[in-house]
Amino acid sequence: MEIKVTSLDGKAAGSLQLSDEIFGLQPRPDLIQRCVRWQLAKRRAGTHKVKGRAEIWRTGKKMYAQKGTGQARHGSARVNLFRGGGRSFGPVVRSHEHGLPKKVRALALRHALSSKAKDGGLIVIESATLKDPKTKALAAHFEKLGFNNALIIDGAEVDIGFRNAARNIPNIDVLPVQGINVYDILRRGKLVLTKAAVDALEARFK
């Protein structure tokens, strides 16, 4: 498929032929959902914790006699029945990560790229560099191009001035091509690739 290339100034900068094996697939929501679920599970801290009955600082002595009181049978006051007792089956510190094969992750990324290309959310720019790396100047460029919610992917290295200028603009993320991922692609309205990023992606999936 062919796509037009623009500059940050909004001027036409030719066109580019995109690989149909990466940007022309019929998106599969099941693959994309599996990859997003894997990403979100992997980044969870898993530090939630409550105290069980063994961790409560309270006597374990039997509260009163088993028989003759007319009350229910009770032993330790640390059980979950009583106020201040331990919690049964509460959350413990653990990892929420689960496995997902590399081939499935790679395929999900290609389908996420294809979904952006299909719904018109894919834009290719010539380069992500600024002569005057100021946030105000970059925000003016983005306003002209209509980038109010976008993920910008550059080549192997992101221009430091461009990254710093974009840092304070809300709903704009800038990543090197190694950091491209399914979740960030979907959470932003537009996916903006530089020509260097397109070349790197096509080399990666060749």
How would you describe the overall organization of this protein?
The protein has 206 residues and is α/β, with parallel strands linked by helices. It has two domains: 2-44 and 97-204, Ribosomal Protein L4, Chain: A, CATH 3.40.1370; 50-90, no CATH class. The protein is built from seven helices and six strands, in the order ββαααβαβαβαβα. It has helices spanning 20-23, 29-42, 102-118, 135-145, 160-166, 182-187, 195-204, and strands spanning 2-6, 12-17, 122-125, 150-153, 172-175, 190-194. Strands 2-1-3-6-4-5 form a six-stranded mixed β-sheet. Helix 2 (29-42) packs across helix 3. The model has no long low-confidence stretch (mean pLDDT 93).
What are the salient characteristics of this protein?
alpha/beta; 206 residues; 2 domains
The helix/strand class is alpha/beta
Question: For this entry, what is the oligomeric state of its chains?
Answer: single chain
Q: What are the segments in which pLDDT stays under 50 over at least 5 consecutive residues? A: none
Query: What's the total number of strands?
Result: 6
Strand content: 5-15%
CATH architecture of the largest domain: 3-Layer(aba) Sandwich
Write the CATH homologous superfamily of the largest domain: Ribosomal protein L4/L1
Q: What portion of residues is helical?
A: 25-40%
Helix and strand topology:
Blueprint: E1 2-6, E2 12-17, H1 20-23, H2 29-42, H3 102-118, E3 122-125, H4 135-145, E4 150-153, H5 160-166, E5 172-175, H6 182-187, E6 190-194, H7 195-204
Parallel strand pairs: 1-3, 3-6, 4-5, 4-6
Antiparallel strand pairs: 1-2
Helix pairs in contact: 2-3, 4-5
